[in-house]
Amino acid sequence: MTVGFTLNGQTQSLSCQPDRTLAQVLRDDMGLTATKEACSIGRCGACLVLIDGKATNACLTMAFQLEGTAVVTTEGLDNDALAAVVRKALAEENAFQCGYCAPGFVMALVALLKENPAPGEENIRAGLEGNICRCTGYHSIIRGALAAARMVQETLK
Known about the structure:
This protein is an alpha+beta fold. It is built from five helices and five strands; from the N terminus they run ββαβββαααα.
């Protein structure tokens, strides 16, 4: 099958089997390796992308579902001001050790802050509940997320 969609602002036409996952398509066919495939059952958040602005597990999204959508990967956030704030805040708080989960956390926080630029800790925890970090623990990640929210609020003033 051939599927047409937008990937990181660029129109794509991709021929692939309809039962391939978006994570497989991104990593294997498009060479975009920031999207990690870890659990493959939608429980860890390492494969999060934005589809039509919503955080979505790429491991659960099938190629046939992509027709007409707009997909943004972590690589597509490189020129996004909000993503830059999120990345800076997480780095300043030393939020991650190995970094494997970092792209998914960044995607989740960008989606959250686009929807709610002034989230409290409870909102942040809820927005990140689908993401798992196996090595850092969550205190530094939550601190980084709160710092990102403060930075976003300051820029809106």
